[in-house]
Amino acid sequence: MLSHYSAAYSNRQQLREFGMKMWTLSCATPVSYPANSVSVSMPSVKAPSSSQISFQHSESPFVPEVVKAVDSLYSEFRAVDNLVACNTSRVLKAFQNARLGSHHFSGSTGYGHDEAGGREALDQAFAEIVGAESAIVRSQFFSGTHAITCALFAFLRPGDELLAVAGAPYDTLEEVIGKRDSNGLGSLKDFGVEYREVPLAEDGGLDWDCLMHALKPHTKCALIQRSCGYSWRQSLSVNEIGRAIKMIKMQNPNCLVMVDNCYGEFVESIEPPSVGADLIAGSLIKNPGGTIAPCGGYVAGKKKWVEAAAARLSAPGLGIDCGSTPGDVMRAYFQGLFLSPQMVGEAIKGTFLIAEVMASKGYQVQPLPRATRHDTVQAVQLGSRELLLAFCEAVQRSSPVASYTKPVAGSTPGYASEVIFADGTFIDGSTSELSCDGPLREPFAVYCQGGTHWTQWGLVLGEVLKHI
């Protein structure tokens, strides 16, 4: 028996040494990005010739415009990979600090009182990741708009004023605020909350001169929308958000700052709570869900205000220690959050590729090609209803789900204009997966986002260029 174990041990040692040699060889090979040809190693005893292991240019799955763009984006893609490593590191550290274990995936039913600690661990990890005191991450948030609404109602009371400092907010918030009539269904305006906007500057950024004197004594909340939404403007960096918060607090220290963080998570190495935001809110079927969270949203920030937002989600007195989440959903939340830096990185690469290709064809793009990204949205100004419809139809045809359907523009709850959506996604409405949409109004811009790998957009653009 002893000799048998000795032989087995010896075999394992040999395998381990062989594996270490192979690992050393693989790590010695530098990472490269796709060029006009891609070398592929084949498992063969006899080394094949280069003609056997290379895809020739004519065999590339991409159209020439995409091949040219990819070749030119090496530096940008590499910088994104460094960002992914940085953000993955902070997610990993937060999971370790929360002592995440498989028992946290068990979920709960009913009131959720017998929850095995997953809800608390998820809240703790999420708060650490975004630099906040506290967080609630819940399946009971229907959407990002719902989470943002809970945060706004946490801050505001009759007679207070809400000030939007980055121009008009996203369409779905108009009825929440009362900018568009909610038909008495309980907008902030219905509850006696006043509203003003600080228009954007001519260059599409924040109007710093106007913001310097914008607050009034009864301005209780300043709303900052990080992403461009359906506006043709620059998205805001975390540093710009920090600068705006300083200006706001200097004028009125009691004014609370709420950041709509949708599409911004993991695009930079820090989040708005690290620069003074009192609350942030967003959706789990966008960036932080990593393409696999099936639903939900989050609110994070100062503990007092997170609890107030939780009371709007549920009811005063219930607190944050309630609400059931099935076990498969809880596991998807943790796994999606862990994957999200990588998924966001691929989405960012997709925006670089879209901008590079579409600008080369003469279309206006926002952000500009190779400009620093502050969200995962790439806008392309198409100029006509027909081209906007054609673009979205091409994206739908290139989707993994419902590719056989034709997207049709129409009215959608929460939107003032007709909107068209191309979203052949596994999660309904997921914009962390490859998708695009746009309102049927001037300047007929399409807003592209998501994608589990940049090559998805490379393939989609080939289809798009055939039809516009």
UniProtKB/TrEMBL annotation:
<dbReference type="InterPro" id="IPR015424">
    <property type="entry name" value="PyrdxlP-dep_Trfase"/>
</dbReference>
<dbReference type="Pfam" id="PF06838">
    <property type="entry name" value="Met_gamma_lyase"/>
</dbReference>
<dbReference type="InterPro" id="IPR009651">
    <property type="entry name" value="Met_g_lyase_put"/>
</dbReference>
<dbReference type="InterPro" id="IPR015421">
    <property type="entry name" value="PyrdxlP-dep_Trfase_major"/>
</dbReference>
<protein>
    <recommendedName>
        <fullName>Aluminum resistance protein</fullName>
    </recommendedName>
</protein>
